[in-house]
UniProtKB/TrEMBL annotation:
One Pfam family named in its UniProt record: Helicase_C
InterPro entries documented for this protein: Helicase_C-like, P-loop_NTPase
Species name: Funneliformis geosporum
Gene3D superfamilies membership: P-loop containing nucleotide triphosphate hydrolases (3.40.50.300)
Top-level division of the source organism's lineage: Eukaryota
Domain Helicase C-terminal: 1-42
Protein name: 13639_t:CDS:1
Length: 43
């Protein structure tokens, strides 16, 4: 999961896990979309 209330290290780990395909499904608020630029996102 990803939301604006995560600590910096939690946010970094969630993003890195998603980018490396360790996390294949991300439950997130709009905070996740801030700064994420990827072609493989389905909504």
């Amino acid at each position: 999961y990803f939301h604006g209330g995560l600590r910096d290290e939690e946010r970094e780990m969630a993003i890195n896990n998603w980018k490396s395909d360790y996390t294949q499904i991300m439950i997130a608020t709009s905070a996740f979309g801030m700064g994420i630029n990827s072609n493989n996102i389905s909504v």
